[in-house]
C-alpha cells in the first residue's frame, strides 16, 4: 500500500510537470503572435521579444530532454512576470497607433452626447402634454408616475390609457411593446401582484418570497467563504453577508405590508442564514440572543421597521404634490367608505400597527387628519 502511494505521487508529479511545460509552450506561442502583430509598431521591441522567446525555448528543450528532479527550479528561474509585462507593453503600443475608420452622421445628435437626454426629455414632455389634453383629469391620483426614463400611466378609464400610444405616434415616438406592461388592479384578481417595478414585485408577500430566493442564491454563491472558517475570519464573513446577501434581502423592504406572522418568518429566515455563515449546524445549538450578539445583529423585523419609517418620514417631509403623498391621500379618501369585514393588510395599516406599539393614543394613522398631523411632526424634525 505504501509503495502504491509513492507511485501515485510520482505519477501526479509527472502530470504536473507536463502541464507546466504545456503552459509554458502556450505562453511562448502567445508572445510570438504578439510580436508578429507588433512588427509595424516597434522593431526594437520585436527583437527583444524574439530574444526572450529563444531563451524560453532553450530552457524548455533542456527541461524536456533532461527531465531532472530540479524541474521546479527551472520554472522558478523563468521570468513569467517579465514576459507578461512585455506582452502588455506591446499591446499598448500597438493600440496607441491604431486608427479606426471615420464615419459621419447627419441625423440627430452625436451618440453619447450629453445634450441628447436633455433634448429627449424636452421633446417627450411636449408629446405628453398633448396626450394629457385627451385624458380625463383625476381628483387625487396623478395621471403619470415617472422614475428616470420609466413612465407609468395611471387611470380609471382603460380606453383612455390605450390612446396614449396613438398620441405618441403623432410625435414619431414609438412605444417598446416588449418593455410595456398593462396592469389592472382589481380585488377579484391578483395577477397585478406579480408585476415588477424597479426590481420589486407589487405584492408584498410575493416580493418577500422573491427577495428570499435571491438572497439564498447570493448566499450559496459564497459557500466557499462560509465553509472555510479556518481561512476566512468571522468578522469578514459577517461583513460579506451584510454587503452581498442581506442588502439583497432588504431591498425596498420599506414598502412591505407585514403581518406579525410575516415578521416572525423573516426573523427565522434571517437566523438560518446567520447560522449558515457561522457554520453552526445540527446538532449544535445556539440561542437567538447569543447568535445576534456574536453577529452584532438585531432581529430582521426591527431593521425593516427602522427602514420603513425612514422611508415614510422622508415622504412626509416632501411636497404634498409628489405621487407618494397623493397616493396616500387617495387611499384614505377611498378607505373612508369601505365595507364591513377584516381589511387587507396594507402599508398604512402596518404603519398604524407600529404606532400602536408606542401606546400613544394621540398618534395614529387611520384618517386624512392623522396623515396631516404626522406630516407636521415630520417637518419639525431637526435637520
From TrEMBL:
Residues in domain Reverse transcriptase?
100-184
Q: Name one Pfam family in it.
A: RVT_1
| Residue stretches spanning the membrane | 21-41, 47-66
Instruction: Give yes or no: UniProt keyword Membrane.
Output: yes
Alphabetic keyword roster = Membrane, Transmembrane, Transmembrane helix
Q: Which InterPro entries match?
A: DNA/RNA_pol_sf, RT_dom
Answer yes or no on keyword Membrane.
yes
PANTHER family attached to this UniProt entry: REVERSE TRANSCRIPTASE DOMAIN-CONTAINING PROTEIN, REVERSE TRANSCRIPTASE-LIKE PROTEIN WITH RNA-DIRECTED DNA POLYMERASE DOMAIN
Instruction: Provide the protein name.
Output: Reverse transcriptase domain-containing protein
Amino acid at each position: 500500500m505504501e509503495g502504491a502511494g509513492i507511485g501515485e505521487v510520482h505519477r501526479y508529479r509527472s502530470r504536473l510537470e507536463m502541464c507546466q511545460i504545456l503552459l509554458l509552450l502556450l505562453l511562448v506561442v502567445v508572445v510570438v503572435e504578439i510580436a508578429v502583430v507588433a512588427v509595424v509598431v516597434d522593431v526594437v521591441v520585436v527583437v527583444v521579444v524574439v530574444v526572450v522567446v529563444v531563451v524560453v525555448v532553450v530552457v524548455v528543450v533542456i527541461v524536456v530532454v533532461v527531465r531532472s528532479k530540479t524541474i521546479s527550479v527551472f520554472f522558478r528561474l523563468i521570468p513569467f512576470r517579465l514576459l507578461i509585462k512585455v506582452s502588455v507593453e506591446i499591446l499598448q503600443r500597438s493600440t496607441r497607433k491604431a486608427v479606426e475608420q471615420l464615419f459621419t452622421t447627419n441625423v440627430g445628435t452625436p451618440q453619447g452626447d450629453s445634450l441628447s437626454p436633455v433634448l429627449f426629455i424636452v421633446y417627450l414632455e411636449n408629446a405628453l402634454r398633448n396626450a394629457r389634453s385627451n385624458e380625463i383629469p383625476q381628483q387625487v391620483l396623478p395621471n403619470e408616475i415617472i422614475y428616470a426614463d420609466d413612465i407609468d400611466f395611471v387611470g380609471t378609464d382603460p380606453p383612455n390609457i390605450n390612446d396614449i400610444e396613438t398620441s405618441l405616434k403623432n410625435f414619431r415616438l414609438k412605444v417598446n411593446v416588449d418593455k410595456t406592461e398593462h396592469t389592472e388592479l382589481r380585488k377579484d384578481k391578483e395577477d397585478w401582484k406579480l408585476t415588477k417595478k424597479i426590481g420589486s414585485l407589487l405584492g408584498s408577500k410575493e416580493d418577500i418570497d422573491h427577495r428570499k430566493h435571491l438572497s439564498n442564491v447570493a448566499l450559496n454563491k459564497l459557500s466557499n467563504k462560509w465553509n472555510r472558517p479556518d481561512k476566512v475570519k468571522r468578522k469578514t464573513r459577517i461583513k460579506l453577508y451584510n454587503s452581498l446577501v442581506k442588502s439583497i434581502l432588504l431591498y425596498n423592504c420599506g414598502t412591505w405590508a407585514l403581518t406579525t406572522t410575516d415578521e416572525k418568518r423573516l426573523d427565522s429566515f434571517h437566523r438560518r442564514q446567520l447560522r449558515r455563515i457561522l457554520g453552526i449546524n445540527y446538532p449544535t445549538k445556539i440561542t437567538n440572543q447569543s447568535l445576534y450578539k456574536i453577529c452584532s445583529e438585531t432581529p430582521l423585523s426591527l431593521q425593516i421597521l427602522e427602514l420603513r419609517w425612514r422611508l415614510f418620514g422622508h415622504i412626509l417631509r416632501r411636497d404634498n404634490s409628489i405621487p407618494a403623498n397623493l397616493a396616500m391621500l387617495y387611499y384614505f379618501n377611498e378607505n373612508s367608505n369601505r365595507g364591513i369585514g377584516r381589511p387587507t393588510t396594507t402599508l398604512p395599516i402596518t404603519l398604524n400597527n407600529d404606532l400602536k406599539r408606542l401606546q400613544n393614543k394621540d398618534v395614529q394613522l387611520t384618517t386624512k387628519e392623522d396623515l396631516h398631523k404626522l406630516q407636521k411632526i415630520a417637518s419639525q424634525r431637526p435637520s
